[in-house]
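Entry for the shared binder. Reason: the reviewer on the internal report wants the predicted structure included alongside the sequence.
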Amino acid sequence: GKGRPFRSAEEAVKTFYAEDPGITDQYLDAFVVVDEKGRPVGPVTEGDAVVCFNFRGDRAIEISRAFTEKDFRAFDRGSLPDILYAGLMEYDGDTHMPPRFLVQPPLIERTVSEYLCAEKVPSFAISETQKYGHVTYFWNGNRSGYIDDVLETYVEIPSDRIEFDRAPRMKAPEIKDGAIELLKSGHYRFGRLNFANGDMVGHTGNLDAAIIAMETVDRCVAELLSVIEDLEGIAVVTADHGNCDEMFTLDAEGRKKPKTAHTLNPVPFVIYDPSYNGEYGMADLPKRGLSNVAATLLNLLGFEQAADYDPSLICFQKA
């Protein structure tokens, strides 16, 4: 499609906010900065160089494909000029996307899923589009696709294509239902899911929508825990950052201002183990963080942690 023309980015942003005072940056329509004759300023043309300054891979892969793939069919991109395109890093090591990049990507090996696949443990991952990459691509160390397509099942539920504060329940009920079906199949020993509500609705700055979002997730988690108890399983509930926990800040004059960014508060790490009988306790670690989660999950599944993993958050009682 074609973006709405404006003489400057400032004019575009001011116009959008004047037309809809409730809008946020995330939902501004596409626009193009043009000159006095309506011609785009700074179009990408033959011989140009384009550098994508983005560290995360999910969104960067999409634009990188559009700039580099000769046989690109995701949408009509028009004619592709002969340019030099480079990413900040290689966003996908399996497909080598993009072909040119500035910084060697980190090599992430020996992930939890690699460990479990080596132990022949069947597992599943489920989320909606907004967080599907987090339970697959990022979880697997920035690798696309399955580690073992026989042992693993990945389920993506398409996200709503509207502003998240207009449908704050998002796809949490569908994720919950899908996870319960997978759990009750009796086929899987390990599963992971991601509820997107807290992050995506939190980014809107809409407090009322955030409350609905979190109440929805609470109800879904409650149903999941009930099923896990019936199956005599264990659940772990955690996060990598906050968002809905702080929905506004105060300006210099004490007025409330919506907060749309992530928070820096500590996140919970909850082990729900209905059959717990004192077999393990919290490990005495000087510092606890996300890097300790992998070994903890392996311990709860009955495995020893890998030698090069950071320590587990739990320690088992000696017999």
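Summary line for the report: The mean pLDDT is 94.
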